[in-house]
Amino acid sequence: MPLNHVMHVEDDPDIRAIAELALVTVGGLDITQCATGAECLTAIEQRTPDLILLDVMMPGLDGPETLRRIRTLPGMSEVPAVFMTARAQPGEISEYEALGAIGVIPKPFDPLTLADQVRQLWDQAQSSAG
Amino acid sequence: MQEPPIPDNERQRLRALGNLDILDTPAEVEFDRITRLARNALGVQTVLISLVDANRQWFKSRQGLEATETPRSISFCGHAILGKALFEIPDALLDNRFADNPLVAGEPKIRFYAGMPLRARDGSALGTLCLIDSSPRTLTDNERTVLADLAELAEVELQRRENPDRVYLRALTEGTQAGLWEWNVQTGATVFNERWADIVGYRLAELEPVSINTWQSLAHPEDLASSEALLNAHFNGETPVYELVCRMKHKLGHWVWVLDRGKVVSWMDDGRPEWVMGTHLDISDLKESEFKRLQSNQALQSRERLLRTIIDNIPMNIYVKDRSGRKILANRAELDHLGLASEADILGKHDRDLYAGYLAERADEQERPVLEQGETISLLESEGADQDGRPLWYRVSKIPLRDSTGDITGLVGLSIDVTDETHSKQSLRGQLQFLKVLNDLATDDSIHLNERLNRALALGSEHLGLELGIISQIDHDEYKVRFCHAPEGVALAPGDVFALGDTFCSLILERSDELIIQAVAGSTYQQHPCYDLFGVETYVGIRLTVNGQVYGTLNFSSSAPLEKSIDESNLAFVRLLGRWIESVLGRDQDQRLLQQREARLRVLFELSPLGIALTDLSSGRFIAVNDALVEQSGYDRDTLLSMTKRELSPGLSHQIDKEGIRESAEKDQIGPVEVQVKHRGGHQYPANVIGLKVSDADGSRLLWTVYEDISDRRRIERLKSELVSTVSHELRTPLTSISGSLKLLAAGHLGEVPAAASKMVSVALKNTDRLILLVNDLLDMDKLITGRMPFDMKPHALQPLLATTADNIAGYAHLHRVAVVVGEVPPVSVKVDAHRFEQIMANLLSNAIKFSPEGGSVTIDARTTTSTVTITVRDHGPGIPEAFRSQIFQRFSQADNRDNRQKGGTGLGLAISHSIVQTMGGDIGFESRPGLTEFRVVLVRV
Asked: Residue A22: pLDDT band by 50, 70, 90 thresholds?
């Protein structure tokens, strides 16, 4: 199954704008964007995405906490998640993977290839799941 | 190793030693003073007064040694007592007799030994006064003199303990047919002479070790009871002597009849008998029937004959007087002494008839307590003169004579010619007296140094008969009076300064170490200004050297000529005094230096910002703590001093236990180690601690510990780490936006960008990339410095690793129109963190590409040894400037700052690469010349 709908959670509006361009305009994906973890928890019940792209450092609910809560929602235990972070240390990456993330994309990201990176992670997860 | 041989007179020697009743007695100040003085004056680690017993040497006094005795077989003193002179071993390791001695090879690692034999009155060697040190050394002549003088003091002290009665009684029986026995009723110590054993057919050696059991086992069982009864009667004062005829078993089995007589010769303070001494006479020759007549006159006569023979052949004067002072017996020696031919000439005569009036009166005076109180007296008496006019000296003993009822009927006089001994002793006496006073001065700490020296000068003046005594300090041409002893009316005081040339002391410094002028008048010294200015007529002076430097002089002088001339013994006296003054002044200088140093260290200790504590290693108690530790730990000083180290920091005590500092002989340092310290407030704080084990003067082991409170440092490190982390996030978020926007713009996703604007966008983009690189490099550098960069070391095949690095850089190479060529790479594996390896290669390759001419090429090669792999990155750029090569791996180093802007880069790349390679166990280096630069990375081969 090709990747179609991505939910992007990011508190910085500028990065949201760039990510929207990168994923929609450049990458041709369908996205839903949220500014906070709480917003995401509400939005995700409206429409279940194929994949969740989560910023790690956010005020209020941070990325990992948001993911933990998503996992408790009905039917959300398997939705693939990818973290975006400005602190991509090897130790932290394995920590995120332990939370159930299928990958980590370091910031600053390249908007021209962001969609490709997400798709690649998605495909890897699909093939290993299949 | 050579064991000390046993001297020929060993039995006599041991008897003399036994006579002192000194073995295993407590220390006494008279001896300790001597050893202490020796240690101070001669500067050695150990000084002993060692007494050589049958199988051991026992130390009556010891400085600098714990042990109270050591086996004789490995003793140095056992050798020293064989001769009469100083036994000196400058370096035991070079001496075959001692090199492998366990006291040399092992602790206490003796290297130097000097022992002066100490003798009993009969000349046998008792032991030594000896010096021991763990460094080789040769004594100077002066030091030998001091040692000899001190040994003499010790010897006098030892000889004082000889029991004169026992010595004389022994002397009386020596060479007679009488067996001699001595028995200490209290300790059980028993001594027999060879004749005693001979009577029962043995050699003394066969009976040894002897005790009272030896006698009991040889005596006839039937005689033991009466022996005991008679002894008790004598002890209780019921009989003047103990007398018994008894049988003793001969070695050949028959019984020997023995006349056993004895007498208590010394009593305990509480009135119990101590030493009993007696004789055995073999009377077996008298037939059984004659025993009855033993009490009869005939037997007594026969005994008198025997005793007569003995006393007439003894080399001492013996006489007996009745209560009225008339001689009733005189031996041959006494008759010869008086110039009389026959005893008949003397019998019934009074001293008044034989001697000058004053001598007779003196004798009456002396004999009164003997005759009236029953005292035994022993004294030194001068009587007459020899042909050279030297006075003759006699050691005289007078012993009361009692009848069977115990009444005093007269006295026995014994006198020995001790003229030779007395003369040498008298000449020593002055010096000994002086030494004693000096010793008291030296050891009495209550007397101030100045007072001690003044007293010593007064003492010297008196001894020499020279009125003026001066200790001078000489500096160039200036003569300064430091201490002086001057007669009334002479205006001389410490601090007075003279021209050196005006004093006789100038001659000492110019010519020799010593100067004696008996009388200046009429001598060549008359021209000297000293005579003119001060009228010095007689002069003795020596040079004083303190701590290796000329200090000044010690001199005694007088304005009057001396009646008695100054002889060698006076000079020896001045020398000895001088050596003592040198040691006192030297010690004073040392002490001042020590105090100065101590004061400096104390300031350091008190003002140190680091906590410092001194603890007792065995109890863990604090002995001293400084202000910083008090402040740092929050306790007040008294509380801290009542605590143990373990209470303050269990972690540190644990570490000390773990490293075995307490027990180990070699290990004396601990740390630096980070431990938690308990603050008074209940929390703990981290401290960096180092410790050093030291030994106190008394041998107890102490531990210095320095506590550096590093909680501030920890907090700052944490803050810094948080700052870097925060900054990286806070910088990267806007950088993400900027670089993302610019990339989208540049890629035309937001519509066509005008050419001029497009150029500006790419400038912005390029600089944004540099900013991102800089943030990444800063973070890497921080992690490398703080050691928090994780490394995932695994074996990786080299070929694919290098292919990946070449692929990764391909875009950048294309931009610079430089070809990246992977050359020969052998199929080997290396142990690396793949991600970090790629980072190094990216750094080297981007540098190589950056500096390559357009259209040039960069080559990657690898070659191997058995244990390493060397990867080279080669470019054909301009080369690294000579001046820059030495600092190429330093942080923020770039050949030229302008270059930076043209070529890009952060100046951290090579420093980071260098750190990473080293952390991975490899190395990085380079070679460069115009047209060829080669970087080499050496890695561990799998």
From this structure: very high
